[in-house]
DNA sequence: GTGAGTGCAAATTTTTTGCACTGCG
DNA sequence: CGCAGTGCAAAAAATTTGCACTCAC
């Protein structure tokens, strides 16, 4: 059905070789910098195909879709609203409770997206809470 | 600072009088239907202003921003991928654990967004799991 | 009369699509 | 050969911005 062409292989290699949460555009730019220039439409189609194949993961927040390695296993994201840095975390109990919350409403849970916004340690130090 | 103009009052009234998760466009259409036609840019600016003032709430998923009443208190969302219906739920324990997860990484949590995807009871009945 | 708000249309941003072309199987 | 994939550019969708104008204080 889907072919793993050289372009898609390049996209996959780049994603697999980094811990970055790639957006289509920056991924295309990085590939271009490496001499593997790929049309932006092909990048979008390639990312969708790779996700469909279960080879990469995606998260959406801040109005943009981002892709990352899938071999890190499931995790959620902690986004710093100060500097934009992204931390990952996994909280098994939250996972379980989400299942429970869905079931409580009679839903069959198929997925979820949890993004916690806040200030990372560095930014929190620069933005002291009122009174500091 | 921000003025609560007649346009913004109309937006606020509409949101407060319903349990809908409004998108800018459908809200503008509904207002137009009621004879209160407001420019789409004004709707966007008004929604942003009302959110800033803490008068309405927003959630973002599916690439779109949605606005809803704030007086329902905090809650998260359960979105049916079959029919698009949205259920709300609140799970105090999940809230608490999110705080804990953020703290574990040294973050000061300022907000979060949790969307659980799944099939609502009606859609689940129509999409029996393999084996059914 | 000043500044925030409005409305239109144009611009932006992210993503998708049409279409002719290419290349693997 | 045939069809999925590619690349370009145009289209689409959601949102923002420029600009002249208006209105409330």
Describe the structure.
- The structure is a homodimer of 132-residue chains.
- The first copy, chain A, has 132 residues and is α+β, with helices and mostly antiparallel strands.
- Chain A has two domains: 6-69, Orthogonal Bundle (Arc Repressor Mutant, subunit A); 76-126, Ferric-uptake regulator, C-terminal dimerisarion domain (Dna Ligase, domain 1, 2-Layer Sandwich).
- Chain A contains five helices and six strands; from the N terminus they run H-E-H-H-E-E-E-E-H-E-H.
- In chain A, a hairpin with a 5-residue loop joins strand 4 (76-80) and strand 5 (86-89).
- In chain A, helix 1 (6-16) packs across helix 3 (40-52) and helix 2 packs across helix 3.
- The first copy, chain A, is flat.
- Chain A binds chain B through residues 60-61, 63, 65, 76, 78, 80-81, 87, 89, 91, 93-94, 97-98, 100-102, 104-121, 124, 129, and chain B through 60-61, 63, 65, 76, 78, 80-81, 87, 89, 91, 93-94, 97-98, 100-102, 104-121, 124, 129.
- The first copy, chain A, binds a DNA duplex (25 and 25 nucleotides) through helix 3.
Report the total helices of chain A. 5
The tally of beta strands of chain A, per DSSP, is 6
User: Quaternary state, please?
Assistant: homodimer
Strand fraction of chain A equals: 25-35%
Mean pLDDT across every amino acid position of chain A: 89
Can you tell me the overall shape of chain A? flat
Succession of helices and strands of chain A: HEHHEEEEHEH
Strand order of the largest sheet of chain A: 1-3-2
Fill in the CATH topology of the largest domain in chain A: Arc Repressor Mutant, subunit A
Distance between the termini of chain A: 60 Å
Number of domains of chain A: 2
Which chain pair shows the most residues in contact? A-B, 38 and 38 residues
Structural class of chain A: alpha+beta
Provide the helix percentage of chain A: 40-55%
Q: How would you sum up the major sheet of chain A?
A: 3 strands, antiparallel
Classified in CATH, the superfamily of the largest domain in chain A is Winged helix-like DNA-binding domain superfamily/Winged helix DNA-binding domain
Q: Which blocks of ≥5 consecutive residues of chain A have pLDDT under 50? A: none
């Amino acid at each position: 059905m889907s072919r793993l062409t050289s372009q898609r292989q390049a996209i996959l290699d780049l994603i697999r070789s980094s811990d970055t949460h790639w957006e289509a555009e920056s991924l295309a730019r990085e590939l271009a910098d490496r001499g593997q220039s790929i049309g932006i439409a092909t990048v979008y189609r390639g990312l969708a195909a790779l996700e469909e194949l279960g080879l990469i993961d995606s998260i959406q927040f801040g109005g943009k879709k981002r892709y990352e390695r899938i071999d890190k296993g499931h995790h959620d994201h902690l986004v710093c609203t100060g500097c934009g840095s992204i931390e990952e975390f996994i909280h098994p109990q939250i996972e379980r409770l989400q299942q429970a919350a869905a079931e409580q409403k009679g839903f069959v849970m198929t997925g979820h997206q949890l993004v916690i916004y806040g200030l990372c340690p560095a930014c929190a130090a620069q933005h002291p809470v009122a009174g500091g």
